[in-house]
Amino acid sequence: FRVEISPLKGNQEEKMGVVGLLTDVTERRKLERMRSEFVANVSHELRTPLTSINGFVETLLDGAVEDPATAKNFLSIINAEGKRLANLIDDLLKLSRLEDRRSKLNKQPVDLTEVIDNTVKMFAPRAWEKNIELTGELPQEMPPVPGDQGFLSQVMINLVDNAIKYTLPGGKVKIKVNFSRDEVTVSVADTGIGIPPESLPRVFERFYRVDKARSREMGGTGLGLSISKHIVEAHGGKIWATSDEAGSIFSFSLPLQE
Ligand code: ADP
C-alpha cells in the first residue's frame, strides 16, 4: 500500500486534522517489476551474442586472421550470432506489435488447410535436410476459422520450427486437425527430445528455455512460444503442451464463432 497523508485545513487555514489516503499499489508494483525484469532479460539476451561477436572479432584482429581455417571458423560463428541477434530483434518487434494490436486483429475467415499446407511447404527442405518425416493429416472439409491469417501462420511456423529443431534426425513431425461443433484444434506432434515435466508449464514464458545452450545453438530466442500464446489468446483460443519420452505434442484450439 502507498500511504499519503495531508493536513486538513479550515477556512482560516487553521489545522483541523489530517487526511490519509491508502492506495493499493500491489498490481502496479507487479507490472513495474515485470517490466524491469523484461528489460533486464532483453538486455542480457542482446548482450550475449554481441559479447561473443566482439570476442571473436578481437581475436581475429589480434592475429587469428592470419590462419585461414581459424578465420573461417570464427567468421561462421560471427555470422550465426549476427543472425541470432536479428531473430531476437524480429521476435521482440513481433511481441510489441502484438501487445499494441491485441484487440485489433485483422479477422477474416481463414482457411487453415492453406495455412498448414504453406507451413509444410516452407519447412519441407529443412525436414528433408535433417531426415525428418513432416506430414499433415487434414480433414477433407474444413470450415473457415475467424482469425488473422498472418498471425495464425506465425503460430504454425513457430510450432513446426520447434518440432523440427528439437527432433533428432530420423524422427517424425505430424500435424493434425480436429473439429468439434464450436472449435478447431490443431496439434503438432514430434518424436523429439521431449520436455521434462517440471519445465512443461514454463515453456510459454518469455525467454524460458529448457536448455539455453541448445536453444542458442539452434538460433532460438526463447520467444517463439510466448508469441504463439499471445496470438492464440488474442483469438480467444487456448494453447498447451504435453510431453513424454516419445516426444512432445503442442496443440492449440480456436473458436469457430467470433
Ligand atoms: P526457442 O527459440 O528457444 O525455441 P520457444 O519459446 O519457441 O523458444 O521455446 C521455448 C523452449 O521450449 C525451447 O527452448 C525448448 O527448450 C522448449 N521446446 C519448445 N518446443 C519444443 C519441442 N517441440 N520439443 C522439445 N522442447 C521444446
UniProtKB/TrEMBL annotation:
<dbReference type="GO" id="GO:0000155">
    <property type="term" value="F:phosphorelay sensor kinase activity"/>
</dbReference>
<keyword id="KW-1133">Transmembrane helix</keyword>
<keyword id="KW-0902">Two-component regulatory system</keyword>
<dbReference type="GO" id="GO:0016036">
    <property type="term" value="P:cellular response to phosphate starvation"/>
</dbReference>
<feature type="domain" description="Histidine kinase">
    <location>
        <begin position="41"/>
        <end position="258"/>
    </location>
</feature>
<feature type="domain" description="PAC">
    <location>
        <begin position="1"/>
        <end position="37"/>
    </location>
</feature>
<protein>
    <recommendedName>
        <fullName>histidine kinase</fullName>
        <ecNumber>2.7.13.3</ecNumber>
    </recommendedName>
</protein>
<dbReference type="GO" id="GO:0006355">
    <property type="term" value="P:regulation of DNA-templated transcription"/>
</dbReference>
<keyword id="KW-0597">Phosphoprotein</keyword>
<keyword id="KW-0808">Transferase</keyword>
<keyword id="KW-0472">Membrane</keyword>
<dbReference type="GO" id="GO:0004721">
    <property type="term" value="F:phosphoprotein phosphatase activity"/>
</dbReference>
<keyword id="KW-0418">Kinase</keyword>
<keyword id="KW-0812">Transmembrane</keyword>
<dbReference type="GO" id="GO:0005886">
    <property type="term" value="C:plasma membrane"/>
</dbReference>
